[in-house]
Structures are given as structure tokens and as C-alpha cells.
Specification:
mainly alpha; 8 helices
């Protein structure tokens, strides 16, 4: 594919999504003002995202491509996310009161981290026989470059599932957060608000795409 052609095709798709947001019918029986943006859900989401973006690439850098098939990670990834929430309730001392946002966020991070590590590790290039044969320094340098190139694509590909997954945190924390925000805007026919979501995702995709073409 010629340089720039994929970018133009992608921008066309985003443009169609933006057009769809403006002509969407919404839900006829639900009329009301557009919902306020859930700013109270931003801080937990940003903290969780920062922890995930830092920890997952670090573990992949230390572990390498073998993390994709590591038995320990597979066992860690096997339990459903609800089990981590249940474990938080069971192990949380009653004298401390109910678990707060940081405790629920840690449980959510424990559930999400192994899957993201395996996702990243599967995308790493093989290291045997080369660059492993060139020594630890060459291996570390090659792995660092690979992880650095993968992280922007990983964030762009996984951001939407992460935001949707905050629906679980919304139920646990009893706050409106990012996961249900766009669904509320569809129901309220908030075309401007939904268009802002699409433009934000389009901007992220464009930045990642332009970085790929520069390489």
C-alpha cells in the first residue's frame, strides 16, 4: 500500500462514523438534556490506564516473547474478573470500612494485566537465533525497540475495550464513568457529544498511523 493511502482510507472511515453520529435517530421515547461528562470517573480511569501502560510493557520487556505462552501468566489470566472483585471483598479488613476506589482499581488492574502482557508478547518478533546469539546487550536493545514500537499501536487498539470495561468499575463504585457515557449520549441524541468521542478516537488513530508511516 502506498504511503498515505491507508491514512486517507482510515480518515474516510472516521468521516463516515462522524456523519453517522450526526444523522443517528437516537431513542425516540427518551427525550432530555445531554448528560454531563463524567469528570468524576476520569481520575480512576487515568490512574488505571497509566499503571497498565507502564506495567504491561515493562513486564514484556523483562520477560520477552516467551510471556505469550508462559504457564504462570496463563494461570493468572484464567480466573474471571469477577473473582478478583470477590477476593477484594473477602480479604478486605472489616475494620477499614468498605473498599475504596483505589482498592477496586487494583483488583481491576490485577484482572486486566496478564491478558495485556500476553497480547503484547505475542506481537514481539522472535529472538532466537538472532538477536539472542549476539549477546545480552543486543537482545535488550532489540527488545526495547520492539516494545517502543508496539506500545502506541497497542494503546490505540485496546483503548476502546478498556473504556468499555470501565462499565464493571461503574457498577462497583456506583459512579457514572466513561464506559456508559457514549451510550447515554446516543439515547439522548447528543450528536455533538458523540462526535467529540469519535474525533478523539480519530485523532489517536491518526497520530499512531502517521508515526508508523514515518518509520
Amino acid at each position: 500500500m502506498k504511503p498515505g493511502r491507508g491514512l486517507r482510507q482510515g480518515l474516510l472511515v472516521w468521516g463516515l462514523a462522524l456523519l453517522l453520529a450526526w444523522i443517528m435517530p437516537g431513542i425516540a421515547w427518551r427525550q432530555g438534556p445531554a448528560p454531563a461528562f463524567p469528570w468524576e470517573g476520569m481520575l480512576p480511569f487515568v490512574l488505571l490506564l497509566a499503571a497498565l501502560v507502564l506495567l504491561a510493557p515493562l513486564l514484556v520487556y523483562l520477560w520477552g516473547p516467551t510471556a505469550a505462552n508462559a504457564r504462570a501468566l496463563a494461570l493468572w489470566d484464567a480466573p474471571p474478573a469477577l473473582l478478583w472483585g470477590s477476593a477484594t471483598l473477602i480479604l478486605w479488613p472489616a475494620a477499614w470500612g468498605p473498599p475504596g476506589r483505589m482498592a477496586w482499581g487494583a483488583a481491576f488492574l490485577m484482572a486486566a494485566l496478564p491478558g495485556e502482557v500476553r497480547w503484547l508478547a505475542q506481537a514481539l518478533p522472535p529472538e532466537h537465533p538472532f538477536p539472542a546469539a549476539w549477546g545480552a546487550a543486543a537482545l535488550g536493545s532489540a527488545r526495547r525497540l520492539s516494545v517502543r514500537a508496539l506500545v502506541p499501536r497497542w494503546i490505540a487498539a485496546r483503548l476502546l475495550p478498556w473504556i468499555t470495561a470501565t462499565l464493571v468499575l461503574e457498577r462497583m463504585l456506583a459512579v457514572r464513568a466513561l464506559g456508559s457515557d457514549w451510550m447515554d449520549r446516543v439515547a439522548a441524541r447528543d450528536r455533538a457529544g458523540l462526535s467529540a468521542w469519535i474525533l478523539a478516537f480519530a485523532l489517536l488513530w491518526t497520530c499512531v498511523r502517521r508515526a508508523e508511516e514515518r518509520r
